[in-house]
């Protein structure tokens, strides 16, 4: 399998992630991580480690770190947090 550029994966996955996160009913970090894994695997079905963190608890920014055999990178986006 050819190497995948993290920026290409991030661009494709971000649109899927945004759509999925907007409808996510499990608004917890683990729920978001599971949603992110599913979205990323639909773009590039290779085993990967996905971690989700909220760098600043007072911000809506979400940081999703992807580690795989062909890429490592982060996607940063504003998450639709539940009140």
User: How many helices?
Assistant: 2
* Main sheet specs: 3 strands, antiparallel
Which structural category fits the helices and strands? alpha+beta
**Mean of residue pLDDT values:** 67
What is the first-to-last residue Cα distance? 42 Å
Number of strands: 3
**Mass-distribution shape:** globular
Low-pLDDT residue spans: none
Radius of gyration, CA atoms, in whole angstroms: 12 Å
Number of structurally distinct domains: 1
Classify the beta-strand content into a percent band.
15-25%
Spatial sequence of strands, sheet with the most strands: 1-2-3
In which range does the helix fraction lie?
Answer: 25-40%
Along the chain, the helix and strand elements come as HHEEE
Report what the structure shows.
The chain is α+β, with helices and mostly antiparallel strands and 83 residues long. Helix content is 39%, strand content 23%. The chain contains two helices and three strands, in the order H-H-E-E-E. A hairpin with a 4-residue loop joins strand 2 and strand 3 (72-78). The protein starts with 5 loop residues before the first helix and ends in a 5-residue tail after the last strand.
Ordered list of secondary-structure elements with their pairings:
Layout: H1 6-22, H2 29-43, E1 49-53, E2 61-67, E3 72-78
Antiparallel strand pairs: 1-2, 2-3
Helix pairs in contact: 1-2
Features of the shown structure:
globular, single chain, 39% helix, three-stranded antiparallel sheet
State the gist of this model.
With 83 residues, the protein is of the alpha+beta class. The chain is built from two helices and three strands; from the N terminus they run ααβββ. The chain has helices at 6-22, 29-43; strands at residues 49-53, 61-67, 72-78.
């Amino acid at each position: 399998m050819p190497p995948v550029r993290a920026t290409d994966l991030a661009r494709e996955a971000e649109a899927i992630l945004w759509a999925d996160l907007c409808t996510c009913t499990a608004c917890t970090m683990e729920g978001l991580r599971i949603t992110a894994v599913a979205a990323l695997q639909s773009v590039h079905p290779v085993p990967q480690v996905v971690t989700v963190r909220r760098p600043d608890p007072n911000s809506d920014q979400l940081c999703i770190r992807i580690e795989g055999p062909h890429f490592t990178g982060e996607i940063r986006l504003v998450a639709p947090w539940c009140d």
